[in-house]
Design goal:
This protein is of the alpha/beta class. It is built from seven helices and 13 strands. The strands form two sheets. An eight-stranded mixed beta sheet has the order 4-5-1-2-3-6-7-8.
């Protein structure tokens, strides 16, 4: 018995350095800015339902992007509508898109240069989320693998810089804990597109924030679990909604629907940041 005790003590001493190395680092300085990346006036809101839930309704959606600072590194989450629309509008079917100010100009107002952005995270492949990615060619692109493969076959391709080998890209097959400390996690929420993601940001003071991507487009859409007619997979969408709501409830997270104008006020007005 005494021999076993000595062996256990020796094993504990050997394991101690490894356990110390695995211990989580001190929380990083994290901040979150909401950026205005355009707006979309929808003349037929029923395209956001495959059960005719919004027939005859219209709505103007916001197009939000987000900058996250983790220590000295920056992640840009989604890149909005094309920068070429700045000061203009463009109509395509039921959607009229417009942009007031480019992302790079907004970042300049808080002293952040494009080359300081280490990561560009794209929730999914649609044009209103990829429009200004090319302004950050030095960043590592983070995007779901299925969405990336679809974009490779598309012309024009807003992410051609990366799909053509000009920049570093990570094709995500599931969740991605970006900094390894649980503070910024890309959450696999497929259904809207092949590999759609939402984003969890744990702020030191404000607490957890969940950015929806396009899992939902507006509050009624979330409340009634509405599935847009153009989603790639209905069953996957509903399963992702279940997962998202379970995470939100367990973490008591603040949910931000990225296209919901009413949710803009849930975060400080730019150039202020949530911390």
């Amino acid at each position: 018995m005494r021999r076993l005790v000595k062996l256990a003590a020796a094993a504990a001493l050997l394991a101690a350095p490894a356990m110390a190395a695995a211990a989580p680092a001190a929380p990083a300085d994290i901040a979150l800015w909401r950026l205005d990346c355009g707006s979309v006036a929808v003349s037929d809101l029923d395209v956001f339902s495959d059960t005719y839930a919004y027939a005859g309704k219209t709505k103007t959606l916001t197009d939000s992007c987000y900058l996250i600072r983790h220590g000295g590194q920056y992640l840009l989450w989604d890149t909005g509508l094309p920068g070429a629309l700045a000061g203009k509008s463009e109509t395509d079917g039921p959607f009229t898109a417009s942009v007031k100010e480019r992302i790079v100009d907004q970042l300049g107002r808080i002293g952040v240069r494009p080359e300081q952005v280490a990561y560009v995270g794209i929730s999914h492949r649609h044009d209103d989320h990829t429009g200004q990615a090319a302004d950050f060619p030095g960043a590592t692109l983070l995007i779901g693998a299925g969405d990336l493969e679809t974009l490779r076959k598309r012309t024009p391709n807003p992410l051609a810089h990366w799909t053509g080998g000009g920049g570093k890209v990570e094709a995500l097959a599931g969740d991605r804990d970006l900094f390894g400390d649980g503070s910024v996690v890309l959450l696999a929420m497929p259904g809207h597109t092949e590999s759609h993601h939402s984003l969890l940001v744990r702020l030191p003071k404000a607490g957890p924030v969940l950015l929806s991507g396009d899992l939902y487009h507006f509050e009624e859409n979330r409340r009634t679990r509405g599935v847009p007619s153009f989603n790639t997979d209905r069953a996957a969408t509903l399963a992702s909604m279940d997962r998202f709501e379970a995470i939100a409830a367990r973490l008591k997270a603040k949910v931000i629907i990225q296209h919901e104008p009413a949710d803009v006020a849930k975060l400080p007005a730019f150039p202020a940041a949530a911390q």
